[in-house]
Amino acid sequence: MEPVRPISSALEASPPAAELGGRLKALRQERGWTLADAAEATGIARSSLSKIENGQMSPTYDLLLKLARGFAVDIADLFANAQVVTAPGRMAVSRAKTGQHHLNALYDHEILAGALARKKIQPFRTTIKPLANGASPNWSGHSGEEFLYVLSGRVIFYTEHYEPVTLDAGDSLYIDSSMRHAAASAGPGDAEVLWVTAA
Fold this sequence. Notes:
Elements: H1 9-12, H2 15-30, H3 35-42, H4 46-53, H5 61-71, E1 100-103, E2 107-111, E3 121-128, E4 145-152, E5 154-159, E6 165-168, E7 172-176, E8 181-185, E9 191-198
Antiparallel strand pairs: 1-2, 2-3, 3-9, 4-7, 4-9, 5-6, 5-8
């Protein structure tokens, strides 16, 4: 797997990165963990955890998964206090453009159904940017499965075992997430997708 690429200073300073950092620090302190303890639990370098806590680094989805697993929380818990509903039946309504955002160099993931913890799937509405000239895809690989449905624009989807595929609005794909994969907008502008992951 390729190393995490640095993100732009504009994204590094974004409020969502700072909010994630504060939440991560609070979770760590609730457990009485040092950065070294958190590094051992998550498998993420202590220096990277420090950067995330201080809002200097926006983690990839792979790192978010490691954080959630290491802290034994839902991904949504990394951004806000999600509720575990124990009464029969669970429901979360996500109003348009009100979800928590997680930004990195290529994606703006809007977390949907963030009010519920311990979900079996994690839905996102994601804005995908085009690759800069000469840039390589931001590869990812983790356990689980993923479903992607293109809402608008065109998406080029890369995998380690298949030729890249171009998807238009209305097209979808389903993959085994352990296969390295990446996506980028195939047009001059951004593309929007519904992206659902299941661990």
